[in-house]
Design goal:
This protein is mostly beta strands and 368 residues long. The chain contains two helices and 26 strands.
Amino acid sequence: MRIPRPLAALLCGALLAACATSPESVRTSASPVIGQAGPSVEVAEKFVSQPSRDDELDSLATWTAEDGRVLVIATAKSSHRLVVYDGDSGERLRDVGGRGGEPGRFTRPNGVIVYADLVFVTERDAPRVQALSLPDFAPVGTFGEGELRSPYGIWLHESAPRELQVYVTDSFMYGEDYSVVPPWDELDQRVRRYQVRLGADGGIDARYVGSFGDTGEATALRMVESIWGDPAHDRLLIAEEDRRHVSTLREYTLDGRFTGNSLPDDSFGGEAEGVVLWDCSHEGGYWIAVDQLSPQSLFHLYDRATLALRGSFRGGVTANTDVIAVHPSPTARFPGGVMYAVHDDRAVTAFDLREVAVALGLDPACAH
């Protein structure tokens, strides 16, 4: 869920004239959607972390230390930092950063993803992507300052040894309160791609390789945040959040071509959010997507290959969820893996993936 920000001083004259040709004006709200879409089963949370109203938590990623301990890294937009939790207990372990443009500090961090011993963070108001090393969170480098305008979500995969393909959703908006969707011909900039090389010295070297996004009236990416991919099926799923049109998941190839496929228009009762892949094997597994609702968010599971709906579950308290993180590897407390979710921007909750698999009758291989 996004909250409009004030109009920047640079938006004037020609820019406002361009806004007149926008597809439509979209008013966003901080109020969650009440209700639910379709049947679901309840799976109780294994923990709910101590809530904090000051952070405005958004995105999650996990990292496994050498001793096997799993850390959950959350972006905190309002406090401009990363919050680190213990993956088995939910205990808050440390905070990283604070507001600022210097290395190791953040300006409204939003998306986060981990690769090996690096964590990549999108900063909406910088705007840039910052990389830090783990476990010390030492700054490694930044990229995207020349192209990104309002970065939100991020996904990456290794395309060659020590080479990453990085995808960043760029949901820039126009108007006095940043609520106006850009003109059709600018919506091909909704996802930006970078080639990032990992240096032997621990540094990074990033190259911008272009943007993409469908611009058709029925299938354009109007408001975007969550993105995830599946190299085994040459697939990207991108969450379209604009409820005034239709909020759903749209399918692209890894090279940025819209396949023409989307989930049915009635798949989500609230905003489509937080899509991730529960990767059980090279071919097996499930997509999990958040239906951002209150009093409980729904988590829809889709077949990895066909995208057919396999079932939905909800927690006992988890609501108004932006993003989830799936950690399929065993932990001390979760031998079958665990799914973490953001609860109402204030806390992190955990679901045992074995219990999810049993409740929905999923492939037993996915629950070890």
